[in-house]
Design goal:
single chain, mainly beta, 2 domains, nine-stranded antiparallel sheet, eight-stranded antiparallel beta barrel, globular
């Protein structure tokens, strides 16, 4: 199967309203390094997922199963898993699709994302049907009182452990899922026949203007 067809197949399997960052593998196994927050080789992986089972080096447990963490669990689509990393950190995992020699699609996030008084995000990338385009969207600022600003636009947002939902001008973006390291947001949505992925990266510190604006309104 050619790469273009594989990309389209993978895109069709990715949920547009994800609970966390989405990762895709095409060889029947997804290998992930929790310490590096990225897909890796099976030899270096702390987490491996196939259509039959899930292996986690430091322990994993399906949310519906009583008892302690084990290193291996059966694969159950769309059921939440809890897992641990080498440093004792907690992660959440959902398996959305898994076939023996084909595509594996999962959602994965480090639990309890960091929350600051003012969170500022810069546009990192815009992807349309698997192809990168020029990212020209404005800065996104989230205030702790539920307001947001997107360039000249403003509105309200709702936050949960996995991401945020904006109203107003960005309402059609749907839910923005936290990236796997909780330091960014990924909005994935459809506009007609096109599938968009808009990725924002958190700025380390909000600048004085952002902080002053918030303090003036509180």
């Amino acid at each position: 199967m050619c790469r273009a067809v594989l990309v389209l197949v993978a895109l069709s399997l990715i949920p547009t309203r994800a609970s966390a960052e989405v990762f895709v593998a095409h060889e029947g196994v997804l290998a992930f390094s929790l310490s590096r927050s990225r897909v890796t080789t099976p030899l270096d992986a702390e987490l491996k997922i196939t259509h039959r089972s899930v292996w986690a080096q430091s322990g994993i447990k399906r949310a519906s199963r009583a008892g302690s963490f084990d290193r291996r669990e059966v694969t159950v689509l769309n059921e939440p898993y809890e897992l641990k990393d080498r440093k004792g950190g907690t992660w959440k995992l959902w398996i959305r699709h898994a076939s023996a020699k084909g595509v594996v699609v999962v959602e994965l996030i480090r639990a309890q994302p960091r929350v600051f008084p003012v969170q500022v995000f810069e546009i990192a990338s815009v992807n349309v049907l698997g192809e990168d385009t020029e990212p020209s969207l404005p800065r996104l600022t989230l205030y702790p009182d539920g307001r947001y600003r997107l360039g000249p636009h403003a509105g309200r947002y709702e936050r949960d452990e996995g991401g945020v939902l904006l109203d107003g001008v960005a309402e059609h973006w749907g839910r923005g899922a936290y990236t796997v390291d909780s330091e960014g947001l990924v909005f994935r949505f459809r506009r007609g026949p096109l599938i968009y992925e808009v990725r924002y990266q958190e700025v380390e510190d909000a600048d004085e203007e952002e902080l002053d604006e918030f303090m003036a309104r509180t």
